[in-house]
Amino acid sequence: MSSKIKIVTHSEKGRCILAANGIKKDEEILREKPFVATQFAWNKESKYLCCSNCMYPLETAQDNVRRLTFDNTIMLPFPECDKINLQNVVKCENCDDLYCSQSCLENEKMNNHEFYCNQLLPNGRFNEIYEVWKRCHYPPETCSILMIIKLFALIKKKPMETVEKLNEFCNRSVNEDLMLAHKMLGDSYKSQISELQETMKKAFADDTEFERYLTDDGFISLLAIIGTNSQGIGTSSFADYVKSISELQLSEEKRSEIDDFIDSIYTRLNETVGEFLNSEGSGLYSIQSKINHSCNPNSEIIFPDSNSLLQVIALRDIKQNEEITISYLDECQLSRSRHSRQKYLQENYIFECFCEKCESQVNDADLTSDEGENYDDDDDNMDTD
Ligand SMILES: [Zn+2]
Ligand SMILES: [Zn+2]
Ligand SMILES: [Zn+2]
After folding, report:
1. C-alpha angle with apex 32: 26 to 35, nearest 5 degrees?
2. Tell me, which GO biological process terms does this entry list (predicted)?
3. How far is the CA of 282 from the centre of ligand 2 (A)?
């Protein structure tokens, strides 16, 4: 673990991560690979290409925009900014899963790829689970059945170590777990959960080590652990390209030309795929999952290598023993009223936020709740669509 942090248990907040020493703005606090990570089921199904181990994009930025806009004539200027390296791509010899490198393939094999290799395809042992899942959980996705399958593969291979790691993730009551499962799967969640659970019981009838996760309580609890602890991972070769372009030294005229060009590509992408630009998935990170939320966080999460390797960076100077915080809300949600933020956090993570920003706005609640309610209505509509 990074020597810059320490984990302590707080009487009210539970586990917290504190700065072991002073940390400077922009300094790396932590770098962590996921314990398990997967691309979302529909994202994979829709041929968003990425490494099956680390989610590194597996198409050039040019191919990426050509595919998403259905236009094979697009030529990206400054091809040197299209930096995706496809030279080491390898394929599993038994299924079609692609990997960015031999080491990602080896890593996946070490994590028991064999367990699900070919098994999600038609006629595979887990195909029915996969199909049931896709029926219950349309995009936008927040978690994936592939995560549970990968976790089961790990439990098969390294039972003690995996169960111990899994138990470290936040535990809640059955009632809270039910609420979270509801949020995850939507209004018809009860029938969906039991259908999924029954299908899984059938598929894993001979695997006694999974029994505890397939009971009524165990299954909901597993879904809730994944739902509340997983960190979204999005990778995109076009986004990487745009970032490289922004770092080029260009004349004002050239800069404005390229900015217009990039805007025009984003407009076209918006017409064809809307928000679904990236290879998307999620991962469970042992240490990062213990970092608490604040509506005025002192740190942020980035993915420096365009894959699932996560980095926590200080947004400002942090004092020794100060708690490290990140935001579980995106920028848009953070700008909403205290009431709206609290509602979202309560529904998705089951906690009340007592951060300094929320505390300082305690009396604002009535002033801004109208605006908050409107936003919340929008949210609810999106969730049930
Ligand atoms: Zn990889
Ligand atoms: Zn395979
Ligand atoms: Zn707050």
Report:
1. 155
2. methylation; negative regulation of gene expression, epigenetic
3. 20
CA of 105 to the centre of ligand 3 (A): 41
The conformational region for residue 284 under phi > 0 = left, psi -120 to 50 = alpha, else beta, is beta
- Rounded to an integer, what distance in angstroms lies between the CA atom of residue 174 and that of residue 220? 8
Tokens of 212: 């505890």
Ligand 1 centroid to 222 CA: how many Å?
Answer: 26
Q: What is the DSSP letter of 109?
A: H
Ligand 1 geometric centre to CA of 341 (Å) = 35
E strand or H helix at 60, and its extent?
none
Strand runs (DSSP E) across 59-204, as ranges? 90-91, 98-99
- Which ligand neighbours the alpha carbon of 346 most closely? 3
Q: Which ligand is nearest to the CA of 58?
A: 1
Q: Which residues contact 202 (CB under 8 A, 6 or more apart)?
A: 128
Token digits for 39? 């691309």
Domain assignments of the chain as residue spans, ordered by start: 36-231, 331-385
Alpha carbon distance 225, 37 (integer Å): 14
CB 56 within 8 A of CB 102: no
Report CA(103)–ligand 1 centroid distance (Å).
Answer: 8
- Ligand 1 centroid – CA 52 distance (Å): 7
State in Å: Cα 322 to ligand 1 middle: 35
d(CA 308, ligand 2 centre) in Å? 20
Ligand at minimal distance from the CA of 52 is 1
Span from the CA of 92 to the centroid of ligand 2 (angstroms)? 5
pLDDT in single tens digits along all 385 residues of the chain:
678 999 998 877 778 899 999 999 999 999 999 999 999 888 888 888 999 999 999 999 999 999 999 999 999 999 999 989 999 999 999 998 999 999 999 999 999 999 999 888 888 888 999 898 888 777 677 778 889 999 999 999 999 999 999 888 866 666 676 666 666 656 656 778 888 899 999 999 989 999 999 998 888 888 888 888 889 998 889 999 999 999 999 999 999 999 999 999 999 998 888 777 787 899 999 999 999 999 999 999 999 999 999 999 999 999 999 999 999 888 888 899 999 998 888 877 777 888 999 999 887 754 444 444 444 433 433 333 3
